[in-house]
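Colleagues,

Please find the record for the two-part complex below.
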Amino acid sequence: MTLTAELRDILGHDRVLSEPLERWVYGIDSGVVRGDAELVAFPETTAEVASIVGLARHYRTPIVARGAGTGLAGGAVPTQPGLVVVLTKMNSVEIDEENATAWVGPGVINLDLSKQTEPLGYHFAPDPSSQSACTIGGNIANNSGGPHCLAEGSTVSHVLALEMVTADGDVVMLGGPAPDPVGLDLRGVVVGSEGTLGIITKALVRLTPNPPDVRTLLTAFASVEDAAATVSGIIARGVVPAALEMMDQRMTQAVERFVSAGFPTDAAAVLLAEVTGLSAAVEAEAAIVEEVAGQNNATTIRVAADEAERARLWLGRKSAFGAVAQAAPDYYLHDTVVPRTKLVETMTRVYEIADRYGIMMLNVFHAGDGNLHPLMAFDSEEEGMLDRVKEAARELVEICVDVGGSLSGEHGIGIEKRDLMKLVFNEADLDAQARVRESFDPDEMFNPDKILPAGSRCFDLGRPPLEGMWV
Amino acid sequence: MTSVRSALDGLPGQVDPIDGAPDADATVAPSSFEEIEAVLDAASEHHLRTLIWGGGSHQGYGGRLDPVVVLSTANLNRFVDFQPEDLTVTVEAGVLVEDLEAHLEQHGLTAALPETPGTATVGGVVAAGISGWRRARYGPTRERLLEVTLITGDGRKVRGGGRVVKNVTGFDLPRLATGSFGSLGLIGQVCLKLWPLPPAKATVMASDGDAALATAFRPQAVVEMGGSARVFLGGTPEEVEGQASAIGGEVVDGWNWPGELAGEVQWSLRVPPSKVRTAINEVNAKYEYQAALGVGEILIGGPDGDVQALRTWAESVGGALVLVAGPAELYERIDPWGTPPPALSLQKRIVQRFDPVRILNPGRLPGGL
């Protein structure tokens, strides 16, 4: 027997892809790293996933779990010949209205969940720009964010429990529906682990009440500094808006050509602020946003007049990456975080890099969180361009780390930033992370070569445990 | 090889025994991470069971421990880095929650840690995974832990996370450390995410807690005790006033948090939010209680006898009944945690890799880990 034949025995012929043309697309994600999916399986149940893991273990084949493939860091890109397990067919949704939670399959599309819970007055708070395509399993793997994570937190704040198939092929439940499940918080460490600790087959997610009132404000500024000062100013006034998003001029121009969202294209920076809650609070907080923007020389302050205008503003924000496709054939989107107070300094240095390398750089980002998304638009056909882009990207990350920032706010490490981990963690730190990984998956069967640079597990235990020390 | 006695004598930071702590051969209060590394390295070498001691306020959680060394965090009490504009603060473990919150309040901020902390330290609250009542609004403490520095059982300093409010850079050690009861390492330093304190605060004394919870929009907390509820509101003055009159009941300015439960024995009953009413009906006739409506934690003062029926029910709905304080003999009769979590072998493997000799608070976690 072969792995392919045994998989087909379990899943049937059609749910296993082995022809090069069929499986080509499963070797890449939405980023710049390419790999090869040797074999692709589409389980529909937890039991099938457990059987697949058992077979993979038997054949010593690595497994890469995959959702919609919208990731940007190569997290779902295979690095070794092996099996890609696509979880998009596991898309059941069971809503528990009494507890404002839902059990969802990993393949449920993010926006579909919010659409299903909308009539009940709830939504799933994490809202990545890819939310109409990305899956909740992928959100969990990357601890995805989105504009509204400023006030609501990233995916990990919205996951209460996980059903997971372990490297041994066991099905375990991590976390639970009640507060503070006893023991170590394994649920918390599995979220954001990019498929390296197990395969998630079901998740209990928290639903967030839809706000009774909402105001979306468009403000524009003649300088990025003024826009950044407005961000800090709003938060210093004690307001944490539901979202606080910034776009630079190149980006607003690209977006306007693409979807006509109504952004002023002559401004150096546009800030989109959304405040939500009870009407009394929304009015007061919107007034503060207007006041602070005015103090910082805003050239435009406009409150979305109705739901249609609000939707158009958000469409503009979330279409940013699509809009870039009009500017250049390729783009490389980065994701780093800096302390909010370092936004201006970082942006200035980011533009310097772009100029020095002669690369078009556009910026659209979650300003409230200090989560930058510098985007380099280029033509990879141009001689030496790809190398320049990669060098510029590395410098950009170094700058962010230099001001006290981190490698990724919401896209994850994957392959893309794996070797940059040493910029933020020392040997002992990386070794500790490798110990976590080893506890779950000692043979590195799940998504090998991701997150941690080779050789991270560098310290060995010097002392044998004493017999009977385990009480 | 040094003898155990000389190893104990050589531990840095020796102090007098701490009031309330169990008897031990040595009590140390190191004042630097290097000293802690030295203590834990020696403890690992000589297999010295080490009890970590913060403010002593959550030592009732988990299995009892007969320590050789008590390691106090009292001298790890520095404010390391405060960035009000970034809404982050970094402090050492031994800083008192009360002192931290008082300092933050001067800047109009809060870490939303427990509101009546007593002697609790920041490190202790994180290690025990304890949250304040305001978790109803801001989520549990683990949501605010951005960065952690651990000194592992084998005496190595490791850092996880980072001092930024949003971060997916590697495995989430801060979350793993929250509620770990020191089993991975001594929590030496943490960076916390902060929230602005609302400009207006009020407490509404409501007769019907469930109705109040349904009426209020994302209140700071709704706590029911003895058949009536307190609704904690925060926001703009107009918002708080509007909410208070919609809920109905006597309104008190500011937040009037519940005091400590009386009695030596205390339990934390944890159930899904929809089961809180059933839980209250089970206990209200017999015991004092404080129930976090909409959250699912009910603190109970009292039962020192047969709790098996209540525990079985709690576990059947996906929750737990956890002993948080009581006399030593009670811990001999009743497992303080109840049924261990399903992935116990995974938990054990992680603990083994951070504390290979198993010297840090051994037996404190569920399942005897």
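The longest strand of chain B covers residues 185-193.

Comments are welcome before we finalize the supplementary table.
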